[in-house]
Amino acid sequence: MPSVKPLRWIAHLDMDAFYASVELLRYPELKGLPVVIGGGRRHQPETLADGSRRFATLRHYTGRGVITTATYAARDYGVHSGMGLMKAALRCPDAVLLPTDFEQYRRYSRLFKAAVAEVAPVIEDRGIDEIYIDLSEVPGVHEAVGHDPLGGVRAIAQEIRNNVRSTTGLNCSIGVTPNKLLSKIASELDKPDGLTIVTAAELPTRIWPLPVRRINGIGPKAGARLQALGITTIGELAARDKAWLVARFGRGYGAWLHDAAHGIDERAVVTHSEPVSMSRETTFERDLHARHDRAELTAVFSRLCEQVAQDLQRKGYAGRTIGIKLRFDDFKTVTRDLTLAEPTADFAAIRHAAGLCLKRVDLTRRLRLLGVRAGTLVRPRAGDPERAAAQAPAAGVDPGLSLFDAPADPS
DNA sequence: TCTGGGGTCCTAGGACCC
DNA sequence: TCTGGGGTCCTAGGACCC
């Protein structure tokens, strides 16, 4: 029997301005206004005596926060996620500033994913506001409706959108194509509140005119290199020989670039995955010096280790690799890590290992960020005495007071 | 007025073993 | 005493994504 490649329909669903939209559900009076989410905890809205609410604006913001999400009204002023709040304040000083409330966003994330699962259960998580959905096995997906050969897919995608809308009050955008790569691109073609179906035959007309940066996996660096080579659009990338790309971008990435430009992507929708690492990091309000701010740094360092330990324990994991991350005042970032004989989720063990890592870093420059990470995770089985012992609190916690001894005086 | 926090994956060199 | 490959683990950095 000849084997025929089954026709796949893969959807990519992206919630529209997710964090901001969740906030608008509880503050409906902000609808239509420029609103940005981000920054610390200091700008909570306050409720006045008459029941109305007063919101902070960007105007007087000081600090190192960035925008995590901006409403479409705010984007009209040229602000976008990732932009520093100080910079955004110059462009749109009257934008409302709300603090992030991950607890709430996670709740709505679970809600919208459950709503999707009622229609199509094969879902791959891509973070809090995005999923891939394999529609291939959903009944009726391959059937035409009237004279529309894509009627089946369209109806199911529409049903997913309706269900998300009615259970969460939130809008999403969906792209549906034969694979994840194209669906990711397609979901952005009609944002917000869009539904876009692209067939393989439409690749030249609908995908090739787009900039290469729209491809998930071509970031700032690769985008700039391609531009320097005279390649701006996906079509121009598709026109290059694979060998030409391999010669310039390496065997793996070069070949992938070629396939991606031709809309080739066989990756499956993965419904389950295990975490590889867990980490905590923090950026300081002002840059700290190892010697001068030793007490503060030591306290932060311990807190990060404790948070990582708690995260591991809460989720039932232990890490065999413990690492640290430091970012200096010149934004240079270094990491150090250390592999233990046994995985651990114990605070004292983590801090001890992280402390050893710290000794391998030159702490002359001031620090702007400190992070702690546990990698090579395992899920210790209950009743495994050896691993249970490794998880138990270790005797003798080193005080850590000498963690941040500076090697030299920079001044 | 510099640029958050939480991740994944890839590469590359050196150690170490066969 | 010198010269090999291959495989795996460890470490550091970097690109990229949400």
SSE layout and pairing:
Layout: E1 10-15, H1 18-26, E2 35-38, E3 46-47, E4 53-54, E5 56-57, E6 67-70, H2 72-75, H3 85-91, E7 96-98, H4 102-119, E8 123-125, E9 130-134, H5 151-168, E10 172-177, H6 180-186, E11 195-197, H7 203-207, H8 220-228, H9 234-238, H10 242-249, H11 251-261, E12 277-288, H12 294-315, E13 318-328, E14 333-344, H13 347-358, E15 367-378, H14 385-391
Parallel strand pairs: 2-7, 10-11
Antiparallel strand pairs: 1-9, 1-10, 2-6, 3-4, 5-7, 8-9, 12-15, 13-14, 13-15
The chain binds a DNA duplex (18 and 18 nucleotides) through helix 3, helix 8, strand 12 and strand 14.
Structure description:
There is one protein chain. This protein has 411 residues and is an alpha+beta fold. The protein is 35% helix and 21% strand. The protein is built from 14 helices and 15 strands. It has helices spanning 18-26, 72-75, 85-91, 102-119, 151-168, 180-186, 203-207, 220-228, 234-238, 242-249, 251-261, 294-315, 347-358, 385-391; strands at 10-15, 35-38, 46-47, 53-54, 56-57, 67-70, 96-98, 123-125, 130-134, 172-177, 195-197, 277-288, 318-328, 333-344, 367-378. It has a five-stranded mixed beta sheet with strand order 8-9-1-10-11. It has a four-stranded mixed beta sheet with strand order 5-7-2-6, with helices on both faces. Strand 3 and strand 4 (53-54) form a beta hairpin. Helix 4 (102-119) packs antiparallel against helix 5, helix 10 (242-249) crosses helix 11 (251-261) and helix 12 packs across helix 13. The longest helix has 22 residues, at 294-315. The chain binds a DNA duplex (18 and 18 nucleotides) through helix 3, helix 8, strand 12 and strand 14.
